[in-house]
Amino acid sequence: MGNHYVNLAFLVVSSTAICQVQGVGINETLPQQALHLGSPTSTVRVEGLNETNNSYNLGATNTYPLYVDNLGSLTLRNSGAVNSDGSDAFVSVPNSTIILLNGDNDGIADGEILNFTITTSRPTIVLVKYTLSFEVFENVSENKLTDKLARRINTYFRLNSGTRKYGHASKCFTSSATNDVSGELYNMSSSYIVIPTAGTHTISLHGEVSSGLTNSAPNTGKATCVVFGRGHDSLMYKVN
Fold first, then answer.
1. What is the 3-class SS of 58-93, one letter each residue?
2. Extents of the domains making up the chain
3. Which residues on neighbouring strands pair with residue 211, listed in sequence order?
4. How is 111-124 classified by DSSP, letter by letter?
5. Is the Cβ–Cβ distance between 188 and 171 less than 8 Å?
6. Residue 34: CB partners within 8 Å, gap ≥ 6?
7. Average pLDDT, the chain
8. Which end of the chain is more exposed for a tag (fewer CB within 10 A), N or C?
9. pLDDT tens digits, 13-69
10. Over pLDDT 70: what percentage of the chain?
């Protein structure tokens, strides 16, 4: 039988070369990651995320954030509707919360519309977004205003009954002398709230009505009734 020779030098060089490969490079001879796009204008296209194949892609005139699920899969669907602890991120908004400004001494009235609690194991930041409807009347019988005076309707959050107000939004309402336009108005806003310590914390949404109509002449007896939660309302929070 003939002799067989093996080139050991070739095997050593080849093994060394294989060990030095860091990943796959496209327009890149020395990839630094498992996939490295070397062109400064490189982009990535995923057919499963396009308008035809993904129901969360609503067309060419829109852009979307890209999310990663627990398996590392890329998706357009935001599971931010569920917080990091698995809790539901949406809070139910109660119907017909009434705040009545009835000629008090400072022309301002406020009240709590809803509250919810979160429990964190460390200091963190909470993102809160809301859309809140309201209607403005003269009294709880929902008679229309006709005095042509302006009212301001403000909404905001408080943390643990503190004095700081987060996520302000406001509308100015002015009535006519005869028939006022009926229907809902909306306040919408979002805000980051710093949670300074671990533990259970309460976040409350408030409504505030102001008009400058104090309980003195010529404004004695003039009131404002604001009814919150009469339309398509939503409140969502996300714990980072």
1. CCCCCCCCCEECCCCCEECCCHHHECCCCCECEECC
2. 8-80, 90-239
3. none
4. EEEEEEEEEESS-E
5. no
6. 22, 23, 24
7. 79
8. N
9. 444 444 455 688 888 888 888 888 888 888 888 898 888 888 777 788 777 777 777
10. 75
Over residues 136-155, the mean pLDDT reads 86
Name the more confident of 147 and 34: 34
At 65, the amino acid letter reads P
Instruction: Assess if CATH 2.60.120 describes domain 90-239.
Output: yes
Q: For residue 202, is pLDDT > 90?
A: yes
For the beta carbon of residue 154, count every other beta carbon within 10 angstroms.
17
What share of the chain in percent tops pLDDT 90?
Answer: 25
Of residues 227 and 85, more confidence is placed in 227
**Residue owning tokens 């109660």:** 94
Cβ-proximal residues to 82 (8 Å cutoff; 6+ apart), any chain = 88, 89
**CA nearest 69: which of 60, 78, 61?**
78
213-220 CB contacts, 8 Å cutoff, 24+ apart: 213/101, 213/103, 213/107, 213/149, 214/103, 214/104, 214/105, 214/106, 214/107, 215/103, 215/104, 215/105, 219/103, 220/103
